């Protein structure tokens, strides 16, 4: 088995705490012959978890976010002889009923209202909408259903009621983005964002300084931050991207990278 130092050399320092959490999960599964259900993980965390579980013998790993195209997904780590089902992931779907004639909800409003109630972001999955972005749904840890329905009664200025729905009624992700292949000098976030959205690096640096760029839902603090496979970068007013693959270097020593890109 690889040592901690050998494992950590493949990841960023800000990911070491999550790696320690994963290692603890793996120990508990192996020692107690039990399954572990994780909170909702972003794609980068899913990638890290998959990488570490692949080093283990006799374990299985399954992901589920409530819908096939989910971005945030829960994982189950279990001995390979366990039988797993959809119900084991403990995901519920909540619909939002509100007076649409007088109000227009946004994804940021919904997330803000739920977090303001004191809930952990890791307990929340994807926020879904219909094609007109007038009807909204929220995937959540099923243990939160009662709390949300009883305590979150306003989103912005709108009075809301929550409907508990079967997962079969979840909206599909409407814009799955398109794949783009890019040659890059490095995977610095300012360079990546500039290349994908056709901006200068100085403009991107200013946007980062203004808090307009996020990595995996957290505000990016440094223009020289280096991204990795699975990272999601959101750029306000422009869109978002996720690094899918890195397949070596070109003859001119450029990094060959493929991104999933959604442009606003």
Please characterize this protein's 3D structure:
With 264 residues, the chain is of the alpha+beta class. It folds into three domains: 4-84, Ribosomal Protein S8, Chain: A, domain 1; 91-169, RRM (RNA recognition motif) domain (Alpha-Beta Plaits), CATH 3.30.70.330; 178-263, Structural Genomics Hypothetical 15.5 Kd Protein In mrcA-pckA Intergenic Region, Chain A (Roll), CATH 3.10.290. The chain has helices at residues 4-8, 16-32, 43-53, 107-116, 145-151, 189-197, 201-209, and strands spanning 36-37, 59-64, 74-79, 91-97, 124-129, 136-141, 154-155, 158-159, 161-165, 178-184, 213-215, 218-219, 232-235, 239-249, 255-263. A hairpin with a 6-residue loop joins strand 5 and strand 6. Helix 2 packs across helix 3. The protein is globular, with a radius of gyration of 20 Å. The mean pLDDT is 93. Keywords: RNA-binding. Residues 187-249 form the RNA-binding S4 domain. InterPro entries: Nucleotide-bd_a/b_plait_sf, RqcP2_N, RqcP2_RBD, S4_RNA-bd, S4_RNA-bd_sf.
Report the CATH topology name of the largest domain.
Structural Genomics Hypothetical 15.5 Kd Protein In mrcA-pckA Intergenic Region, Chain A
User: Which strand order do you get reading across the main beta sheet?
Assistant: 10-15-14-13-11-12
Number of strands: 15
Radius of gyration: 20 Å
CATH class descriptor name of the largest domain: Alpha Beta
Average predicted local confidence, pLDDT? 93
List the helices and strands and how they pair.
Elements: H1 4-8, H2 16-32, E1 36-37, H3 43-53, E2 59-64, E3 74-79, E4 91-97, H4 107-116, E5 124-129, E6 136-141, H5 145-151, E7 154-155, E8 158-159, E9 161-165, E10 178-184, H6 189-197, H7 201-209, E11 213-215, E12 218-219, E13 232-235, E14 239-249, E15 255-263
Antiparallel strand pairs: 1-3, 2-3, 4-6, 4-9, 5-6, 7-8, 10-15, 11-12, 11-13, 13-14, 14-15
Helix pairs in contact: 2-3, 6-7
